[in-house]
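ASSEMBLY PREDICTION REQUEST
Request ID: AP-0331
Submitted by: J.K., bench scientist
Number of chains: two
Total residues: 570
Priority: normal
Notes: Please return the full assembly, not individual chains.
Input sequences:
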Amino acid sequence: MEPVLNRYQRARIQVREKRSQWKRGLYHAGDLVAFMGRFFREVWKPPYEWREVLYQCYLVGYKSTFLIGLTGFIMGVVLTIQSRPAMSQFGAISLIPGMISVSVVREIGPVITAIICAGKVGSRMGAELGSMRVTEQIDAMEVSAVNPYRYLVVTRTLAATLMVPMLAVFADLIALFGGYVAMNIHDSMTWQHFLLKAISHLEFVDVFPAVAKTFFFGYFIGIIGCYKGYNARRGTESVGIAANSAVVAALMAVFVIDLIAAQITDLL
Amino acid sequence: MAGGDPAETTENEEDIGALVEKTDVELQAEREERQEAADEQADGLRAAEEEIQRELTLKGEEPVVVISGVRKAFGDHEVLRGVDLHVNKGENLVILGKSGTGKSVLIKCLVGLEWPDEGEIRVFGKDLAKLNYAELNECRVRTGFLFQNAALYDSMTVKENLLFPLRQHKKDMTREKKRALVMEMLDNVGLVESIDQLPSKLSGGQNKRIGLARTLILRPELMLYDEPTTGLDTGTGKEISELMIRMKKKYNISSITITHDMTCAKMTADRIIMLREGVVVAEGTYESLERSEDEWIRSFFY
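STATUS: Completed
Returned structure:
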């Protein structure tokens, strides 16, 4: 029979459990920081795996273009349709291109791209490396004197760091095109005129921090996906857990980076 | 009545308690006795092992692998409890033992996938614990490891799997030479026609053969086989064993094989050691161990 505990004893047990959860959390955080730091040490060291980097760029970038493009287009269309009634009340229809360009370039484009990549790329990396860990492929690489961190983690993280900014710029352009299409449902505006108005509202402070933060988004999505997969425990269940937790952690990282970037941009 | 006399019940309970206690004491004594016997046997084998190594050193032939006093624990569970063994050049040592006795952990210690808590491991005359990463990798290139499930890279074709180690370690080799080497290895394992297939399209036995070809492509001096015939039918298992013997003769490879498959052990072993609860309890040829008086040892053979 289990002993009957009074409320103080129960509270003490709960505090002890919470403390061990915190300890575990701190341990994982420390481990992740070390894993992230290792990337900057290993990325400069030869041999450079250009072939694998290019292949990963193809997977992260090219394979995501349709999804990012479609989302960007819908984003532009929806943003224009939603803002049109309010803008027309103030007789400011001509300001819609500028409003769309600022909101898309500053915030919506990079964040939506990062969210899609966290789901698509982060989960793929988590599951792929997790599966490689479970089936001893990473061990096989290690025993054949190939550095698995350099071959698997550096290449994937580098590809994500380079490709996410490109995808974000692509999403921005397609979203602007979507805005142009939506504008022409009720009004008539040429593509050149729309683009001119959209670009004229953009300033350095809108573009540079927005592009800069996408490099961080890419790096964190890549490294977190790889970390979760690389450290998967043995067993098929851990592959699913790795993919799932890679997405959750990468999304959290994206929002935190966005918050920090917003604060920094505010100071500029 | 269901309840019975309370005094009688208490007396019965006491009897049962005494009996359980007695059985526990007996079991404990038996366990201690067995442990003592195993330790004695291990001490004897350790002395013999040291003697052999001394003789070999005097002759100037250092064994390819020397393991002395290796201990390894995972948490409270001690898997290896002072293992001593050696592998001579060109010899295949088979390690037998029940599941969970630390056989796989032991060979993983030889390539730095696991590190022992205590003891010394010398591979090609070098103490693994004292090597830096680059030196350890030099040792790894000279060692081949065939995993239980072959561990082929499933996103690569058979050809890419075989080219992968060459691309990493033979950078100055021409493309034609690499291709010729891949073809030679595939020919060795009889799977030339599968060159462009993905591992997922191949059977378990074919995967093992490709795994063997991949590890042999760098011409290792030492091969470590982790249950090479497990999960295969008798015929395919026999084919793999024959392949192991053929490769050993062709390339003069020393090897350690972990197996539960007695046919494989009989076919490939030059010498067998038996692990029990993390300790080497017996050593000898297949024939000598088959005739052992120890019931536990004989249980593997019949």
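REVIEWER COMMENTS: The CA atoms of residues 89 and 232 of chain B lie 29 Å apart.
SIGN-OFF: pending second reviewer
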